[in-house]
Design goal:
The chain is mainly beta. Helices cover 9% and strands 44% of the residues. Strand 3 and strand 4 form a beta hairpin. 20% of the residues are buried. GO terms for molecular function: DNA binding.
Amino acid sequence: MSPYVFKISDNTDIVEAITRFCRKQNTGLCILNGNEVVANVTIKQPSTTPAVVVTFHGFSILSIFTTILPGNISVMNDSFKISLAWPQGHVVCRLMIELLFSAGTIYPMAATFNSPSFQKLPLEDEQ
């Protein structure tokens, strides 16, 4: 496991930038934290008929997180979750995001891994 601090420039799609990094490095990744201002956000609303809400103003990221397994890069966009604060003080948590554009340089913290060990819990008693 290796720690990373990503520097993502202004007006960059954060989801695409991180997806491209994982593809190029052929590695898994877990975003631990990130908080800055974003400009454009496309949010997936979970429901029986998925609707997409697009917003175009500066919001503050309170938290962003995802876990991407090596070799599972094609389904990454569904795994990005975010908590946002609206300029009026409203907070929305655990949104699934599709597009997320930075409104300035942001620095998400992450850890990468290549060979995760999968364990089934709870452990069965040995008899």
